[in-house]
Amino acid sequence: MPILQDWKIKSRSHQCALTEKPFEDKEEIYTALFLAADGEDGDFQRRDFCIEAWETRTEELSPFSSWKTVYEAPPPPEEEVLQKQSAEAQLRHLIEEDQPDTENSRYILALLLERKKTIKETDRQQASDGLIRIYEHAASGEVFIVKDPQLPLNEITRLEGEVDRLFPSESPPAGSSS
């Protein structure tokens, strides 16, 4: 009975192995498997080539196997990831600007990011001008200090519009219910 071997062959490259020129979406390319240089039996290396480089390669580049294929550019990140990053970037921007008229938006964005578990509240302190919430970024440990504006429920609709204006796209930020 033959022994099955697990091969560790890397996935498609995004550029030509010889010219290092990035591939265009839907460009025809050649993919080739070469026996590894270290002489290990059954150990392969994958290389991807643009048509021109493939046709002008030297004899020393003799593949074990090769085929012509079409390069497909990787899809863009999922929409929610973009929105989450946008909400995080917007919160950073608003905190850095520290404009009094964005206090409510900063608080709403912090709540959205807390709901998505991007940041977590680590402390709250009563200051002379109100409640201050301290958040920590779950991945980086970065600290965000946001004033809690103690918003009444009847202001929520107006604030949803204020936060929506921060995002030029048609879709609301991650975690928003509007």
What does this structure look like?
The chain is of the alpha+beta class and 178 residues long. Helix content is 26%, strand content 25%. It is built from 4 helices and 6 strands, in the order E-E-H-E-H-H-E-E-E-H. A hairpin with an 8-residue loop joins strand 1 and strand 2. Helix 2 runs antiparallel to helix 3. It is elongated and about 80 Å long. The termini are far apart. The N terminus and C terminus are likely disordered.
What are the segments in which pLDDT stays under 50 over at least 5 consecutive residues? 1-6, 170-178
What is the number of E strands?
6
- Summarize model confidence as the mean pLDDT: 79
Number of contiguous helices: 4
The main β sheet shows up as: 3 strands, antiparallel
Global Rg: 26 Å
